[in-house]
Amino acid sequence: MNLTSYLALAAILFCIGLYGVITKRNAVMVLFSIELMLNAVNINLVAFAKYGMVPNISGQVFTLFTIAIAAAEAAVGIAILLALYRNKGTAEADKYNSMKG
Amino acid sequence: MQQVTEIDWDILAPELIIMIACALLVILDLVLPSMISRRWIGLFSLVAVVTAGVWIVTQFGHSPVALLENTYRLTPVTLIWKLILLSGTFLVLLISLGEDQEEFAPNSGEYYYLLLAAVLGGMFMVSSADLITLYVGLELFSLSSYVLVGIRKRRGDSNEAAWKYVVLGGMSSAFILYGMSFLYGLSGSTNLANIQQYIVKAQGTYDWIIYLSFFLMIVGFGFKLASAPFHTWVPDVYQGAATPITSFLSVVSKSLAFALLFIMIGVFDGIDEGWESIFLPTLMIMAALSMIIGNTAALRQKNMKRLMAYSSIAQAGYILIPIATLNKLYFPSTFFYLFVYLFMTIGAFAVIMLVMRQEKNEDMKAFAGLHQRSPWLALAMTIFLISLAGIPLTAGFFGKMLIIMGALGMEHLWLIVIMVITTIVSYYYYFSIIRQMYFRKANTTRRIRTSWPIGIAISMSAIATIGFGVFPEWILNLVESLLFK
């Protein structure tokens, strides 16, 4: 296993996440897809920290920060989704279209 | 740059003031009985923002230093950014204090300390010298502003705006972070100065990584800047958020995104190949698209907040021009325009908020006959609008002139032509509001109720908009004395 395979895995994961954010109709799946994108970054960082051109620890430290922040972001996203679900009674993301102009 | 190993509390004081105020207010909100009005929390946060701002003014002329293992730096540029952020927050706090309390959740204390948390993240971000600090600061700002957009949790449109903002904001953070991970991979360091050196060395052999990371980050920045073609979230979020938050997003969040762009441009600066032929043209195309799409889409808007949203997309395009052409007037013209944009935008939003609150109507027709009802308010709104349109004697005119003068020196004529044409197009929608105020009959003769904080905010913004138009050298001298000493 060399660096390229890890980078390819991260790239594929990132693209799946992006595809999910754009096409998924269920709002929870949209949040999952954002997490996929952020985890792709983590794979990238850890791979660079181990097999990169200048291997060192700071990539893994960066990963700890991104994991923590991604968790906070998911919490905020779910909280907003709950409030939205109470108001609209649906978790279908394409029903959230009351504003037009 | 001088390295400081022990923590110098003096240098970090503005951030510490905001942080302590934020933590104190969280506890106060918890222990205070619920009968006590949460306006006190708002007043306290206003005091904290003013104190931090005054402290930053005393730091003017401080020699550049790096703190905390070289992850935090104090330079003249970071001081200017923080001044912009804090002045924007100050005005937003003033107009929030004047807003009807029922507009927000019953206990609106959280509104104020989230605002402080957001500005704290912004202040850390502008003075970061490390990818990790940069990212944490940016996310502290973003997460607080997601909640702020959705703070009216019983209203469907507010929730929907927050949902759109959190999804697209999260996606843009992922793009920025993915770009950053490649920069780390290239240099093996998260320090911005180290990364810059490695990029210069790596060009030629690892060009594709440099380009990839640049374009990934540009997608993310495009979202945060609210510039076309990444602008689709802007009208919905601006419409759904409470008006003070809309002005916060359009001023403070945009300034912060520009600060981020400045920092990253500093990182990519050493590249000779691709800089002139790929990076700058990308920014120019974004600027041109923002001006065209923003100004033409605003023409058919009847909802005032959506109109201001498209107007702010167009303004992002104007401010991108000095950065995209990287001319001699790059620093002064960007800072001048951002300062002026701050006052005229928040002023306009404050008037819109007052009119909308009384009329219970977001339509442009709510402004009909404002001149007969509240002449001073109509006059202030006229000043803000003609400044946004860029008519002489206002600060907006001088800002646009600086941008055009800078771009002329670099021979990017097509960009200037687009700017002038779209500015003329923008006269149509700005003047249609003025037409409503002066040449349409009012439905009622009731005056618009104002309160003192909003009165102060509107008069400060109006005075600044006219004052910086007549004496633009005040800001320019300040920026110059800070930067070129």
UniProtKB/TrEMBL annotation, chain A:
Membrane topology type: Multi-pass membrane protein
Catalytic activity: a quinone + NADH + 5 H(+)(in) = a quinol + NAD(+) + 4 H(+)(out)
InterPro entries per the UniProt record, alphabetical: NADH_UbQ_OxRdtase_chain4L/K (IPR001133), NUOK/Mnh_C1-like (IPR039428)
Primary subcellular site in the record, as a coarse category: membrane
Domain of life: Bacteria
Membrane spanning residue stretches: 6-22, 29-49, 61-85
Record GO terms (molecular function): NADH dehydrogenase (quinone) (non-electrogenic) activity; quinone binding
GO cellular component, one term: NADH dehydrogenase complex
Keywords: Cell membrane, Membrane, NAD, Quinone, Translocase, Transmembrane, Transmembrane helix, Transport
Subcellular location: Cell membrane; Membrane
Enzyme Commission number: 7.1.1.-
Protein purpose: NDH-1 shuttles electrons from NADH, via FMN and iron-sulfur (Fe-S) centers, to quinones in the respiratory chain. The immediate electron acceptor for the enzyme in this species is believed to be a menaquinone. Couples the redox reaction to proton translocation (for every two electrons transferred, four hydrogen ions are translocated across the cytoplasmic membrane), and thus conserves the redox energy in a proton gradient.
Family that this chain belongs to: Belongs to the complex I subunit 4L family.
Subunit structure: NDH-1 is composed of 14 different subunits. Subunits NuoA, H, J, K, L, M, N constitute the membrane sector of the complex.
Stored PANTHER family: NADH-UBIQUINONE OXIDOREDUCTASE CHAIN 4L, NADH-UBIQUINONE OXIDOREDUCTASE SUBUNIT ND4L
Protein name as it appears in the record: NADH-quinone oxidoreductase subunit K
Automatic annotation (TrEMBL), chain B:
Primary localisation category: membrane
Originating organism: Thermoflavimicrobium daqui
Keyword Manganese in annotation: no
Protein name: NADH-quinone oxidoreductase subunit N
Gene label: nuoN
Superkingdom per UniProt: Bacteria
Residues forming coiled coils: none
Role according to the record: NDH-1 shuttles electrons from NADH, via FMN and iron-sulfur (Fe-S) centers, to quinones in the respiratory chain. The immediate electron acceptor for the enzyme in this species is believed to be a menaquinone. Couples the redox reaction to proton translocation (for every two electrons transferred, four hydrogen ions are translocated across the cytoplasmic membrane), and thus conserves the redox energy in a proton gradient.
Cell location: Cell membrane; Membrane
Top enzyme class: translocase
